[in-house]
Amino acid sequence: MRFKKQENIVNIQQTEDTICAIATAQGGAIGTIRVSGAQAITITDRIFTPASGKPLAERKPYTLTFGHILSPEGEVIDEVLVSLFRAPHSYTGEDSVEISCHGSSYILQQVMQLLIKNGCRAAGPGEYTQRAFLNGKMDLSQAEAVADLIASTSAATHRMAMNQMRGGFSRELSALREKLLHLTSLMELELDFSDHEELEFADRSELEEIARQIEQVISHLVDTFSVGNALKNGVPVAIVGETNAGKSTLLNALLNEERAIVSDIHGTTRDVIEDTMNLGGVTFRFIDTAGIRDTTDTIENLGIERSFQKLEQANIVLWVIDATCAEEQYRELAEKILPRCEGKHLVIVLNKSDLLPSGNAYSSSSDSMNQNIIGKKTGTPNVTGLESTSSTHRMFSNLPEDARVILLSAKQKEGISQLQKQLVDFAALPDLSQNDVVVSNIRHYEALSRALESIHRVQDGLAMHLSGDLVSQDLRECLFHLAEIVGGEITTDEVLGNIFKHFCIGK
To answer: What CATH number is given to the structural domain containing 373?
Structure first.
């Protein structure tokens, strides 16, 4: 065999130590201290006195024991409940104890000090989950999902993290790995028995079909990252436009709080302001940017440059235009903004509807006029659902096909609900179940992208009838990148085992 994979290097602390840590946030009625390691039960027995019966070391696992935590002088520190878990049937795979105390920070610190004095070590960040990974309780992708689950802020992110933590992503990769091992085994057989012309284990068409199936699966997983990233980090929405168009006021209206400073002075917002909000079960990351205008102010120009950077990074662009001078502002910035909106969703926000004079084409109530805006293409004659005028049609005739135009007053919070509905429609994120596999981790995305490049080289090699030795190397590269996700490795023995298991060479 010609393959030797570099071992994964894990930053492992002293895993033989018994560790302890406060596992709950401060301020609650109950505080929990988790102890894990070979001496977890013994050390806890030194500071814990059951109200009745046997010490912890003589009790069965999965039991709760009521008793007292005592100081060395015999003073009662707290009445507690102790949960007992024995290896390997615990979160870390080690003997574990959870001490449920009253939530006083003083009590929790006193218990921690007693545990440390009796042989424990304070756990480092993520060390419990690290031990679970090292003890085979979960793979690396499942371990990473624990942090995602804790940080979940919506039903979608919770379902996504739960699926990954329960092994949904790992099972998908495991099935993919089996296909790759099968293909690798066929290639190895072709190499090792190339002198025996009478032996044929697979023709190139079979190899190409297996490679095609693998490529489809990896491509699908890579494609899900845009959805997963949006669900996890929020759909980026850039708010752009001229100074004093009402961008910061709009941000405050959307968030329903005074998040950005609002003033009549041009160039008040000079840097990017970001905040998130959940709409319709989707998290949106709103980005208020510096007003775009010609200026000699160095600092303001830096802010404007950042505005264009954020615009390019956004999925949805809210171009805020002062409705009292809409045509002028649209004409002034169209050449700068529209080219940067290619491939993005664009909403023209005609703000300050409350300042429009009576009889203006836009002067009707924002809420009533916007009833027809949602769902209409701007390329149609009725571009906005507003009163039809030839000037309106001319002004917005060159917008992207799926762009929308909404009239509102951010100051009076009129038309905000219609804008929010349009944002949810543009997000168009699928309603995920706990069985859906979605990639949301950038490390997983990068590894999958590299694996996809490798399988593309395999397909090209098979199509060009390259030597099996060259194709086999790309296959192993693909396996290596997939192994990076779950923290495993592909060994020569594993490939050999797969060969003999599936092909029964000799006897």
So the answer is: 3.40.50.300
